[in-house]
Structure formats: C-alpha cells, structure tokens
Task: structure prediction
Amino acid sequence: MKRFVDAQIDIGPSAVNEVGVCHTFTVTIQQDDGLSAAQGGDGVSGFAAVAGLNPTVTFTDANGADSKGCGTAAQNTCGTTGTDASGNCTASIVSDTAGTVTAHASITFSVGGVSLTRETEPISSSARSPTPTQSSMCTRSRRRCSKTTA
Result:
C-alpha cells in the first residue's frame, strides 16, 4: 500500500508597525505522515503540529528599512527551542527607519522516512510613523493575517 506524506510551513502575521516597535512573526510547521489516527503514526488523520524543529527565518530590508532582532527569548524561539507542541515558534524584528521588511521561513525534515523541504511565500512588515488607531484582521490562513494602522 502506498503511503503519501506531506508537510507545510506558514509565517505571519504581516503588519504595519510604528518605527521602532518590535514585530513578532509566528512560524507554524505541520506534517501529514500518511496514516490515519487509527493506524498510529502521529495519531492524527491529516496535518498535525510538529514539535522540536528549528526553521530558518530570514529578513530582507527594502525601501529604507534597517531591521535587527528584538524582543525577549520568548519572542525568538525558532533558532533556540524551536517549534512547540502546537508546531509554532517565533522570530522578532524591529526597524528604526521607515520601510518594508520581508520575512521568509524554510525547513527540511523527514516525514515517514522521506526528506521534505518547505518554504513560505514572502510576507512583509512595514514600519511607518505613529498614528492613533490600529485594527487587526486575520483569516485562518496565516499568510493572510494583517494589521493596519489608520
């Protein structure tokens, strides 16, 4: 019997932040081991969270942004403790100048003995001058989360 395995990686949310405000991206990694819950494996039919992985997260500056790491250890777990039981880890950046920073995450790991590499689509965070109100909107797809400043 053939067994099909798969994996996915997501990063989000995108946002527009004030210059100098730390922005935290959450990376989520899931696997499908090709087995139903009744057959064992990871005990889930379909995609399930993967703990203990350290995805590579990179940031690309554009339009004047000058990003650097920021935040606490809890805001930067992708390179240290890795993904938790929910398949999530975090990476945080801040820019002291206005511009756009694009985040990208990738991972290579084995699912059912098959080495899989997955990458996110680029997602951005923009820094601009402070304004008085902010609103947030997220859909279930982490790639479509956004936070806008009005």
About this structure: The radius of gyration is 17 Å. Confidence is low (pLDDT under 50) at residues 129-150. Residues 32 and 46 are 5 Å apart (CA to CA).
